[in-house]
Amino acid sequence: MTIVGDLQRARHLALAADEDAARQLLVSLLPRVEEADRDDYALEVFAQLGEVYLVRTAYDGVVESISRIRDCLTIYLGIRSGQRPDLAGQVSLSEAEVDHMICRYTRRVEFLEAGLAAARGDHDSAAAHLEALIEVPGDIDDLVSEHRNLICQTRILIAVGLCDDDLYAASAPVWTEVLDFLQNAGSGGGDAETDYLFVTGALGYARFCIESGRLDEAEPWLRRAGARAQARGWRLATARAQLERAAACWSSGAYTETQDLVTEAYPVIAEHARAHDVSRSWLYFGLIRLGIGRLREADQCWEHAERHWGEIERPLYIHRILLQRSWIALFRGLFDDAIAMVEEARALLDSSPRHSCFSTRGWTLIWGTSGGPPPSPRWASTAWANRSRAGSRSRPGMPREPVGTTVVRGAGSTAAGWRNSPTRSTSRSRRRWRWIRSDTRSSTPALAPDGRTVSRRRCWPGRSQWPGNRTTPS
User: Fold this and answer.
1) Segment Disordered: which positions (predicted)?
2) Are residues 349 and 449 in contact, defined by beta-carbon separation less than 8 angstroms?
3) pLDDT tens digits for 208-246?
4) pTM (whole model) above 0.90
5) 8 Å CB contact between 282 and 308
6) C-alpha angle 248/250/255, rounded to 5°?
7) Largest CB tally within 10 Å, which of 273, 308, 404, 408?
8) Helix (H) or strand (E) holding 241
């Protein structure tokens, strides 16, 4: 097969989530590309490798791919501007081909930069790279569709990254831009690239709707994404659609359906070894077991989730799962273990630059330490003393005989309900969505990470920091 044919095959493998096979094929192409002396093929190899590494959270590989692409582009820009006349005679491509290559891979490298920044939580940098991607000059007919797809894919990555950091209000205008593309691509019958963007965007937007309480709006997107993925034979995308449906079922109280969907999706998710999806599966396995009173099994499930999130360095997710595990330790009377988990969770929260004031506020609402330092060893005794005044006759080291069953039941509900978003503290789904929509305009006091009272509008970037309503190059 030709180099071009192998590059296309590698791309289709990546779209089908077979990144290992795609990476091996791309790496094997490098000697042939070098022998053919085609820098445009080399740039395509590194652009595809960078995207594969980005999907698999191998960020060092993304950085290396970006560096290789930029080094090559710098040389060709110097040649075209007349600054490197010593290399002009070695170029085998025509001037039109060089301009085409510079335009195409400048856009591809901006996409990789934006995706990497979003994954690392540097949302301002991600927005800047998106703006640079939109404004890359070049009016080349055969690159118009690719440019439009890159802009949409970048917006999806940025919106997902914002949701991962609980910045739902900031992600809302970005999702609005994504929806414009998805609605145009929703008729089906497109090429693989369009279908991939539709499935990825629909799953991401459905998750945003679920976590902000808009379950009715999430359902059709999940159904269409799952059908499109199944028609393409994309097993992982189909399983991810099932996982998001499980999240929606859990939010609506359909616990049996949650168990069935997660159990059905997990083998494929485990096979593809996407750490984030694996951890989310174990999260729901633990919630289900907690709901039927199997505390030890729930703790084991969440321990698996914590380990996998640790592999990809997601401190906010580890912080949340530690809080959930501390509840189980508390229920079992293991107060020292609970205190250790709380201290570790608070340390992760304080050390992470990605947390918002609502992460701290949620921690405060649960443990009642007012955003101050981690609880002291006396915390358990104080907590149980407070509970005894509320109707529970118990303290550490003594048999628990809870009289105030409402308090205990409420603690269990809090543990089971604490999920991937602080918006869970708002009870009704529509009310949660109104909270999301109004939050950037609200001045209700909230706790900052250091315990100070600040305005909510300072918790995340405002809408003005995001690129405007342009979906095509200016």
Assistant:
1) 385-474
2) yes
3) 999 999 999 999 999 999 999 999 999 999 999 999 999
4) no
5) yes
6) 130
7) 308
8) helix 235-251
